[in-house]
Amino acid sequence: MDYQPLLEHIRQEIEVYAHDGKQADYIPALANVNPDQFGLCLNILDGRTYHLGASDVKFSIQSISKVFSLAVALSLLGKELWQRIGKEPSGTAFNSLVQLEYEHGKPRNPFINAGALVTADVILSLIDNPKEFFINFVRTLADNPDINYSEEVTRSELSCCNLNASIAYLLKHHGNLHNDVHDVLDFYCTMCSVEMSCEDLSRAFMAFAKSSQPFSHAGVNLSISRVKRINAIMQTCGLYDESGEFAFLVGLPAKSGVGGGIVALYPSRYSIAVWSPRLNSKGNSIMGMKALELFTSETEESIF
Amino acid sequence: MDYQPLLEHIRQEIEVYAHDGKQADYIPALANVNPDQFGLCLNILDGRTYHLGASDVKFSIQSISKVFSLAVALSLLGKELWQRIGKEPSGTAFNSLVQLEYEHGKPRNPFINAGALVTADVILSLIDNPKEFFINFVRTLADNPDINYSEEVTRSELSCCNLNASIAYLLKHHGNLHNDVHDVLDFYCTMCSVEMSCEDLSRAFMAFAKSSQPFSHAGVNLSISRVKRINAIMQTCGLYDESGEFAFLVGLPAKSGVGGGIVALYPSRYSIAVWSPRLNSKGNSIMGMKALELFTSETEESIF
Amino acid sequence: MDYQPLLEHIRQEIEVYAHDGKQADYIPALANVNPDQFGLCLNILDGRTYHLGASDVKFSIQSISKVFSLAVALSLLGKELWQRIGKEPSGTAFNSLVQLEYEHGKPRNPFINAGALVTADVILSLIDNPKEFFINFVRTLADNPDINYSEEVTRSELSCCNLNASIAYLLKHHGNLHNDVHDVLDFYCTMCSVEMSCEDLSRAFMAFAKSSQPFSHAGVNLSISRVKRINAIMQTCGLYDESGEFAFLVGLPAKSGVGGGIVALYPSRYSIAVWSPRLNSKGNSIMGMKALELFTSETEESIF
Amino acid sequence: MDYQPLLEHIRQEIEVYAHDGKQADYIPALANVNPDQFGLCLNILDGRTYHLGASDVKFSIQSISKVFSLAVALSLLGKELWQRIGKEPSGTAFNSLVQLEYEHGKPRNPFINAGALVTADVILSLIDNPKEFFINFVRTLADNPDINYSEEVTRSELSCCNLNASIAYLLKHHGNLHNDVHDVLDFYCTMCSVEMSCEDLSRAFMAFAKSSQPFSHAGVNLSISRVKRINAIMQTCGLYDESGEFAFLVGLPAKSGVGGGIVALYPSRYSIAVWSPRLNSKGNSIMGMKALELFTSETEESIF
């Protein structure tokens, strides 16, 4: 099947949502992005690749980085990681302190901010040059040496991360951060600042889509079972407090970021990345979600 | 592949858990069940069927009935149903009132008790003989006319359903129950009392596993898209507050009940039902979960 | 001191608030009251009485009845009562289920609905003709045999008490209601339906203001210490989730009702009842609160 | 009346509780205190003073400092303060983040940690040498120039204040801290480290007990109405999540600290300070509460 006509059709169908929502504006680097952009890249396991729109424009991946940091932390710590982080959907906002207090500092899952702070802490504890290690890992996955952190984004995030600082100190209070809080926040914000295009992301997530073979990239090694489990967590927790809706509408493991990117995958078949900065009230890209919903509806290729 | 040797192997592996946990004991009909039973039935889409242990012994399906009632309610009301029930994991216990109060009487999803009370209410409003209609639907799916409600279980449940009554009155307060509270509780408890064997359940869930074709059974009609969406909700919300763990360990859409049954499915491949009465602290069958984890690990056939 | 000129002055001062807020409208009997009424009655311990406005017009006392039922239940059960009800401010709305769930069915205090349902249950268990006993107690306190229940209000409340039913079933679930839920709701709604004037209420609460002598009225007997403790609970919990504000502004033990009445007392000095149907968002009479604030500010006679 | 025999009697009565509970041990400076000490000082408005036990031994006043900082902040900012802090009992632990998140960063009252961080922030913003100003204010109230901060306690508190840091960053996130978080924490911990004896505290709180005259001490000026309102907040919120119980048992405005001190007052009559390091599960001195309960029961001198 040639997917290009379908992708063009989807592009037309979602045009009606082109001006709904607005981009994240809590830091200048995100607020200043032109919101009227859309890109998509589809990688089929057989080697074919399809592009649409601004598929080669880099954007801030933000929370999508949480999948990469989970992969690294799980590779480093193994199943002990699950003594410090749960695997359940949170049922609350990604930055909520309420559940974390009730559950004594054990984050619900690795994709809420609290959980990703813990994965950052694990990496800081066990890797000598964590920033170099991490960017090298991402570059290797995406097969693109030009991927970088954005210093501007890191700086901005650090200057307005009071809520994350509050979460981090609560984790520290419960003994679930081993490094200095400011070091953890710095590394967390740095990882969120990575800039990638849809092409980069789609290619990088092929490593997770190939879940029937072991994962071994740039020093990060995961068994088949662990790759499948990362995919399972993407399925149940990948789109903040809209993960159930996304599973319902799209039916694929995926992860989103407030930069407007969403990357999804069909195990053993394909990975697909979309990007459009305008977000809904849950922090997910409106055109991105719609494009993915149409894609799995038209192809009838959801995992369900 | 002949699955029988694998199933026998799994049976031996899980023997070590045979005396962990205990059965539900809040009503005599469940407390009096012999807890040391185990059954399993696997139906492959190509027609093969495999059995293990007490696969033909009937047990109380309890919350597994919520999948059937969701199918009926969705068939009757269509997408309007989602104005009365959400699709997100709850992040809290299946019988919690907290979230329901904060969210003004809209249950998080159709598989927590509050959500299933609403699906019961929908059916009561739109079907003349709801109990007859429902049991006929279940019998048709399982191709077994000998499936029945247990009057004893219904009576017992009704005599100790104060918490469900509390939830029902809170729904009523918010305008999200249209029928008399006691009629809804009666119908809800009746549906939970259905008794089926693993063979019955596995066969019945083949209708959901066949998600690439429309669902049309005993007057309940669902499009391909709706069947897939029911499966997606099973994936994110099917095992109470352990749905994330189950997705992580097993990786299949599934639904469990406090009678000790769990039924899971791999879309377009197979459905599998297990039963063993001893439960963990979340209300899910210990041996059942373990058996399913081993099955998807050994076959490497999870959807992820 | 002659209080009449001060009371007249207060009446003028609060005129500016005469049209703020609106009366309770969840039942016809309250919705149909003329909202533009105001009454006040002040009883000094030395025997003097002062009146203002519609001080002799009867209105629905609603939650003010919770003080009377607490007095009866405490007289009957003694300190054992505090094993079933707490004494702490709730920090949440008077009809919240959240705290009750977290605290396993022990209401925070006797003046939230959950707590008053438990006091009603205690009375039902220990008194043969509870409705006769209760109205006789209230008539004796107020020295007015013409005080009665309103059957219309009771009927209306019972027909729209889904939220209280939800609370009652949650109490029942936790073993903290011993009688039939519907009997408890019926008695609870009946007690709330009592109709009294400001004159009646002010006179009745003199029994609590006289806290340096034992309380013995119509078969209800309380030691000095217990009367003081009822007053203390009025201080910390008497005005729903506005008790702190009221202590801050007025500085007297008091109890309010959604009928627009508030009755307050200065131990060993006076009791004062006000009534005006228009309520603020917390369910307390706007003109009533303002009148009491002015009264204690002008006289500098708060307990603090 | 000569209170000395009564005080001696109380001392004997509470001996039975002498070994219940244990002192705070989260910092060495508190853990190393001899827990088996008891002191009491009573100041009557007519000038008489009574002593019992270790009434002249200094201890860490901890949260009792929150009354002094509230007085300063209210003097500085006036009623605008109440736009940043509420006046309601919290119904939850003194260090809970849950309510603060739900209520968007406005602390429930000035005596929970979140509220006291805001009063510290107000003082930092408006006073040039806040630490000097504050200690001078406390010395003036207690008429004792030898009262000092404990540098050791301040240092210890600062080294283990992750939970307060979490609260402070959440306040900052909501715009309710204007100064640098670390400056606020430093000033907050410094104020908590003040060391005073029962004699100092009882004398200092006479300024609040004299609520029928304006408060003007060391540059801190409060109207009669404002003093009464501080007393009202002590009544409803002064003993953490045990304020209702304390009002019930003792019936006086009061403030406690985890150093084991409690100071209470009867407006226009007396102030009384007790100290004993062993605490109950709510963080209040066991012997201290018991002594005060006996004192108001025996004298029948509660405000109710």
From TrEMBL, chains A, B, C, D:
Lineage top rank: taxon: Bacteria
Catalytic reactions on record: L-glutamine + H2O = L-glutamate + NH4(+)
Keywords associated with the record: Acetylation, Hydrolase
One Pfam family named in its UniProt record: Glutaminase
Gene3D superfamilies noted in UniProt: DD-peptidase/beta-lactamase superfamily
Matches recorded under InterPro entries: Beta-lactam/transpept-like, Glutaminase
GO molecular function, one term: glutaminase activity
Gene Ontology biological-process entries: glutamate biosynthetic process; L-glutamine catabolic process
EC number: 3.5.1.2
Keyword set includes 4Fe-4S: no
Binding positions (substrate): S63, N113, E157, N164, Y188, Y240, V258
SUPFAM superfamilies, sorted: beta-lactamase/transpeptidase-like
Family of the protein in this entry: Belongs to the glutaminase family.
Quaternary state and interactors: Homotetramer.
HAMAP family xref list: Glutaminase
Name the record gives this protein: Glutaminase
Organism of this sequence: Leyella stercorea
Gene name, Swiss-Prot/TrEMBL: glsA
